[in-house]
Write a sequence for this structure.
């Protein structure tokens, strides 16, 4: 059993990561951090840079958590997260959520909604600490 | 001088000013985005020439050309991936500077250096172009034929990793240029009346640049995103100014003549400028490879100077030396303007408005680039599928609007696949596009020369200028071979190899 975190390099991803680390430590399970991107734009702010990844790895190591960071380039971020959760037989999938405008949801769909409905494991949804949208 | 002032007055008219602003904004945007360049943008905009006045369109195109040179440096510095081929060298030192927290200074020296170089070169252009036009106006058809031949040979053999690939691309271009019935008999028309008027250059240029690139991007859609280095407002302190101004001037001195020669635009002078700055760096020599400001200032000045240099042969002789210049030439032909010495006689107002607008564009570029470089970098977050969907839409629209025939759209697809295949197999695009545009004119001059001499072929080398040009062509083709044959001496390496070894050296 593994704790899987859907991580993005922003406040929401940070919240999910912290909560995921907490879960992993509480249950003594390994942690798998997934930072996926579709790779269709030259720059993706939510895709973590080398320095960010190294920082996260160091932090988790220092907490004594057996952690792995994966950064796949995939067709669909949601599907990739669900597939990985299934592949490692996740006990819980931690994601960060935020408010979406109705129009934004109509155009882009909701990653969180799809994960909540389609995941085979338990999903833990957290919000960014500062309440940023 | 009076002519220039009149031109400046016309260039500052609201309508022309709006086109200049649109041009520099578009140019900077496409310069920032990797894979999309000024050549593609001007090609996509060729259809606007149907209902915009010649001076407005040319002002816009010149703005795009200059703007592309500015925008490319932003991407090179902040992302370590060149936005334009002319900014490859800038990435060497520029990105190192950005990584050590000096992105603001790198952007500033690039923008101000581009402005300085652009202004000096435009002055040189204004001084030189009419003089060159006066010299060449007395030349006859044999000399023009020889000069066009030189341009074709030069863009084909000086650039690129392989001469064979260059000549394949050139042959394709000349073949496309042959289609039609201009000579009286039908050539390569396959009995199709729709091909009788030849293939419109708009269709070929848009297909090769836009559709070919879009297909290529679609085939490599998912790439690991790159990290953009955060940066505030670009600025320089006194020391940076002191270290920058000499490289700016030296870069200009390299860029302008190389732009004017058919030696392939900005790659060669930026490279030479970088080497020179590294050699002359003195006490800052150790900083090269770790982010030396001289290594950004020189090449960035060189690439802008070369853009202005390119306009000398384009306006005065009608010879394009870069892909963008070739497409601008196509636009001028679309207006029925004959670039070359006659242009200064026949359309003085247009020429001087265009030249004056270059100063305007250059100033506008400094204003929009210096404070807003970080904003421009935001364009890089645009997902490629949206971007290229838009490009394909305009490509199809442009091709269709040529004759309102579905046939042109079909040709667009066909040549688009050709453009994709050329990228796949490493064939350079420049010889093809120059071949398509110069091919028919080459033939026209040949026909004229032979008509005057009543078919006597020796007329082709009857003018001294023509003989000199042929000698240059032979030297260009045989030079590298001869150098290789001399024992104990290495032949000159290809530019790509040198840039590669330079990059390795810097990385290690």
């Amino acid at each position: 059993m593994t704790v899987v975190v859907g991580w993005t390099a922003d406040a929401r991803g940070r919240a999910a990561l912290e909560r995921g680390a907490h879960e992993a430590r509480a249950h003594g399970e390994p942690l798998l951090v997934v930072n996926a991107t579709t790779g269709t734009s030259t720059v993706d702010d939510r895709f973590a840079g080398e320095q960010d990844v190294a920082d996260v790895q160091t932090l988790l190591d220092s907490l004594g958590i057996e952690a792995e960071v994966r950064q796949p380039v995939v067709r669909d971020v949601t599907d990739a997260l669900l597939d990985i959760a299934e592949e490692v037989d996740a006990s819980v999938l931690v994601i960060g959520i935020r408010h979406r405008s109705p129009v934004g949801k109509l155009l882009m769909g909701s990653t969180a909604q799809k994960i909540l409905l389609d995941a085979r494991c338990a999903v833990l949804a957290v919000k960014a600490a500062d309440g940023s949208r | 001088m009076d002519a220039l002032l009149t031109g400046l007055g016309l260039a500052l008219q609201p309508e022309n000013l709006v086109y200049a602003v649109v041009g520099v904004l578009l140019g900077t945007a496409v310069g920032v985005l990797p894979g999309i360049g000024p050549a593609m943008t001007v090609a996509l905009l060729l259809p606007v020439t149907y209902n915009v006045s010649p001076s407005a369109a040319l002002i816009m195109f010149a703005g795009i050309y200059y703007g592309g040179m500015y925008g490319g440096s932003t991407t090179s510095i902040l992302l370590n991936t060149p936005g334009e081929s002319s900014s490859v060298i800038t990435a060497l030192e520029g990105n190192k500077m950005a990584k050590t927290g000096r992105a603001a200074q790198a952007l500033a020296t690039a923008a101000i250096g581009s402005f300085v170089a652009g202004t000096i070169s435009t002055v040189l252009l204004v001084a030189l172009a009419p003089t060159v036009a006066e010299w060449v106006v007395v030349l006859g058809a044999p000399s023009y034929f020889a000069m066009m031949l030189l341009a074709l040979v030069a863009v084909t053999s000086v650039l690129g990793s392989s001469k064979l690939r260059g000549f394949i691309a050139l042959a394709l271009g000349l073949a496309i240029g042959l289609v039609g019935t201009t000579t009286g008999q039908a050539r390569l028309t396959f009995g199709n009346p729709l091909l009788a008027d030849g293939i419109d250059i708009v269709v070929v240029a848009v297909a090769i640049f836009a559709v070919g690139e879009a297909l290529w991007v679609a085939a490599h859609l998912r790439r690991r995103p790159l990290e953009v280095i955060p940066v505030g407002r670009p600025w320089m302190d006194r020391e940076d100014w002191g270290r920058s101004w000499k490289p700016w001037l030296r870069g200009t001195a390299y860029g302008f003549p190389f732009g004017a020669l058919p030696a392939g635009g900005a790659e060669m002078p930026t490279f030479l400028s970088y080497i020179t700055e590294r050699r002359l760096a003195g006490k800052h020599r150790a900083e090269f490879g770790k982010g030396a400001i001289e290594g950004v200032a020189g090449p960035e000045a060189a690439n802008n100077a070369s853009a202005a240099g390119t306009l000398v042969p384009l306006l005065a002789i009608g010879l394009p030396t870069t892909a963008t210049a070739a497409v601008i030439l196509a636009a001028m032909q679309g207006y029925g303007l004959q670039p070359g010495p006659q242009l200064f006689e026949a359309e003085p107002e247009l020429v001087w408005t265009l030249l004056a607008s270059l100063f305007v564009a250059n100033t506008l570029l400094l204003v929009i680039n210096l404070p807003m470089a970080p904003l421009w970098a935001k364009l890089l977050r645009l997902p490629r599928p949206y971007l290229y969907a838009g490009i394909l839409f305009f490509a199809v629209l442009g091709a269709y609007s040529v004759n309102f025939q579905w046939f042109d759209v079909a040709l667009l697809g066909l040549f688009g696949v050709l453009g994709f295949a050329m990228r796949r197999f490493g064939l350079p695009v420049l010889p093809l596009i120059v071949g398509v545009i110069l091919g028919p004119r080459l033939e026209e001059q040949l026909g004229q020369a032979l008509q005057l001499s009543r078919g006597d072929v020796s007329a082709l080398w009857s003018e001294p200028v023509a003989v000199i040009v042929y000698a240059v062509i032979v030297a260009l083709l045989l030079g590298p071979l001869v150098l290789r044959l001399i024992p104990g001496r290495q032949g000159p390496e290809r530019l790509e190899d040198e840039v590669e070894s330079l990059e390795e050296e810097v990385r290690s």
Observations:
- The mean pLDDT of chain B is 87.
- Chain B has one domain: 2-507.
